[in-house]
Amino acid sequence: MPPGIQDLSSTLVFTGLFNILTGLFFGVPLPVQPMKAIAAVALSRLFDAEEVAVAGLIVGIVVAVLSVSRLLDWFNRKIPVPVIKGIQVGVGLSLISNGGSMFIEEDEFFLSHDLPQLLQFVAFVGFLAGNVFRRLPLALILLFLGILVALPSLINHPQALGIWHPHLLMPIQNASVQAGLDAALGQIPLTVLNSVIAVSALSADLFPDVSTPSPTTIGISVAGMNLVGCWFGSMPVCHGSGGLAAQYRFGARSGASVIFLGLIKLLLGLFAGRFAQDVFQGIPNAILGIMLIAAGLELANVGEALNTAEARDISGDDDGLIINPPSQNWSNGIAGEDLTLERRKRRWTLMLITAGGIIALKSDTAGFVAGMLCHWSYQWYDRYDARRSIREGTIRLVNDNSH
Fold it and tell me: Considering the entire predicted model, what is its pTM?
């Protein structure tokens, strides 16, 4: 197996099974997607399959401990909603940026065809049409177009179909545990923040009328997927807010959609893994870039509900972000006098600092730390201001009594 590359057939088989189970148990279109931090380290350092498996197993064990101990629910309660939405907005804007770069990138298709700009134009028009006509199956249209473009390049290089044969890895014996640990350390905070807490909040935002999974439930799912699949050469996977936004944007509204996706992946993995790999690699970046942009826009749009009735913390105290629970009537979905202009600005600042940290430093963890530091500074100032007010009131009372 080439360094840094997991067995695509195994990954398709297991992620297909996980898609089916996710759709059956959760009832919402939670994605099953690769862990990007592990993938980045594996590609840059040319990890072999066993080292990647070690990284996935370490993340699975850590997330399992956090889930069973209920620490994920505790984290979810303690992290302010503006910071969570900042993570979602930051990831969404990062997807838009990456999609834009892919859209204009001169890939193999761009260099080998006379009119590559025509495909870019068609993809962009499809993107605009999808924004106007929301029921248009944009993802299926773009995917079908990409496959049509990729197929001619495979005519001269046909791939034989074959049945997948499972193989068991022994990563603890054969791999460098230290290498796997290095990759896992960068993935753990990303998984906890974006693949568990943020995706739990986003599922509740997108499906307010459905019972959505809690952080603990999602954490157990992420842990189970990796503690099973990594032993068979599957890429470490998780649920991500970007993937959920993408599937929602492209029409997924229930678990049935990911069950259908899982069946397709399962069949491809069992009978046509290598052929599927060549087809996927042949899809032009212009099409993939437009799909990333559309998904990023959908995810970044959740930020607009920060100061409205849709925000889950808007009706009560949230660690100092809202001092008094709203007692006024809602007007256009926005809290009345209790959510003052200053409080709204603070919440927007928290969200934008978190998102800005993610984009500028290219790290979800860095954005989260920046947002929490800003949040704690607001808390410190509120306590200082309250003590100062009490002290000044006491001094005035003493002065009044002395007269």
Answer: 0.80
